[in-house]
What does this fold into?
Amino acid sequence: MESTSPNTPLPGIADEHGFTPRPEFKKKSIRSYVIRAGRMTPAQHRAFEQQWSRYGLSLFSGQIDPAQLFGRTAPLVLEVGFGMGASLLAMAKAEPEKDFIGIEVHPPGVGRLLNDAAEAGITNLRVYMADANDVLEDCIPNEVLSRFQLYFPDPWHKKKHQKRRIAQPAFVAQVRTKLKLSGVLHMATDWQDYADHMMEVLSSAPGFDNQAGEYIFSAKPSYRPNTKFEQRGERLGHGVWDLLFEKKV
It folds into this structure.
């Protein structure tokens, strides 16, 4: 049985120029992202207007009940920063026995995913356009996630900006509370410096085991599709590093 999102208001502002989608967030001093400029296509605008009530979730609606939200009890996967959504959509199609929640702050990417999910008739997907830390804190119950995905986050490669990196000890500790026992935290990056940073943070985090072995990066799992971004990097000779850490007692 499919369930739909409650009557979630569109996130954004309305003015004399029409409706402008904007991400939801609580006030804070340091963010792990910037809102990238990007013009939305008419199809993406229509997707917000026509599909948000079907797929959209609001930060300000509080904690979700996954079984009620999806109309069933199934493994739940959460991805932060899905970009334009192609990879997340492919996973939702390939694993219909699982339910997926995506979090993204880039309105064109959210609009694109809403449009493509509707065209594909996807039912096992919901979306937040909000700050991921806020969603984890206020909306995701503890011990409900089978998998948490963070793929190619902004590396903030300048040293003065590295405090903005999302992969930090406090963030990993927060994710652990949301994972079920034996749930998997999966990160991937194409920046070696960030990969080393991720490995240090995850290896030092209590309550996790590296599935590949101590300080060893994992092979890319079959469920993670190659993105256009990743394919471009491979053509340029860039490496890609995957880290899979399992929650233990």
Summary: Helices lie at 42-55, 66-70, 86-94, 107-120, 132-138, 169-178, 192-204, 228-235. The two ends are 33 Å apart (CA to CA). The first strand starts at residue 12 and ends at 15. The mean pLDDT is 89.
